[in-house]
Phosphoglycerate kinase (Rufibacter roseus), 401 residues
Amino acid sequence: MTTIDQYDFSGKKALVRVDFNVPLNNNFEITDDTRIRAAVPTIRKILNDGGSVILMSHLGRPKGGPEEKYSLKHLLPTLRETFQTTIKFSPDCVGAEALELATGLQPGEILLLENLRFHKEEEKGDQIFAEKLSLLGDVYVNDAFGTAHRAHASTAIVADYFPHDKVCGTVMQSELENAQKVLQYADRPFTAIMGGAKISDKIQVIEQLLDRVDNLIIGGGMSYTFAKAQGGTIGNSLLEEDKLQFTLDLLKKAEEKGVKIYLPSDTVIADAFDNNANRDVVTSGTIPDGWMGLDIGPETRATFAEVVRNSKTVLWNGPMGVFEFENFAIGTKAIAEAVVEATKSGAYSLIGGGDSAAAVTQMGHAHDVSYVSTGGGALLEYMEGKQLPGVLALQFEESPL
Ligand code: AMP
């Protein structure tokens, strides 16, 4: 795989797949520009080499045609402020106008293409659409790790049209390096913290991790299925009826492999799914009817935090409770703080995308951990041991002996 530092972009037009799927408010202003900031090193390297940049991305989930609220033109003011250079915009990502604008692009300039998903061919991984995109640049760069698990036209198929000129961007490279650090070179003890709503989303990754970790901490909504399977009562808490047996099998497998599993010993319960609901703390598996578990309890916070603080590698995916409600964010905060402390003491900590990344960022700790991944689903699939189409597409065919 060619990394961005290994390629000289001088005089080249680089077709760069970025993940500019940023949140916008009702006035189409960007409310969190993390993803744009993440792509800056890749874009700057190309411009500094004397190349020009053609940016392509998706934004939101349009139905397959143009929609004002999903137009990438709303990003232009931020991009102009960030790069202080000419930024042109093509109202269609393919076709005559895009081609003309790309052809006229001068070194140091940027062309932003309209939302790729205004064409339904993008998500279908359509060859012809990918070929049309490929006409715009001399070299393809993929810096969108968050969509690398999708074989879309711009994330994978287009790479076929650049057999010798396909490059891994800095975001993509650091995501892969950081994932490798925990998958292959983890210092021990290695603790994985799994939380969030559903076991079913994380079964494969949990199974993979059993071969690697020393400790597996399970919190969040998924822990109630474990409590129920062990004979407890869980009231109206989240339950995946069809995963009851899986949880028992997992506990057995963990024991066989010498992995220590930590489940909540107490839980914060509520009489409604509401920040202002009545609250109480009970022993796990003793939740009365009409109540639901929305966070880990104080005893669990202390136990989990202690395990985390004594770890040398920490991987965290999924909140410990409904952290969007302030009153039920205490468990997630306690774990975030323990991860920060472990990091300060020399541990390597990787926060896996989606909600855990949001929680750590929201709590102001994004810079106090080793790495916050930008890819939720992509990171999980990578951790499951799957080949990501977007990564595979950047690899060169082995030359025959
Ligand atoms: P995931 O995307 O699977 O990581 O799940 C994240 C979501 O799980 C967040 O929106 C949390 O509010 C939710 N969650 C965590 N714990 C609970 C719980 N005890 N009950 C309901 N939802 C939860």
Notes: The CA atoms of residues 155 and 197 lie 28 Å apart. The chain is about 35% helix and 15% strand.
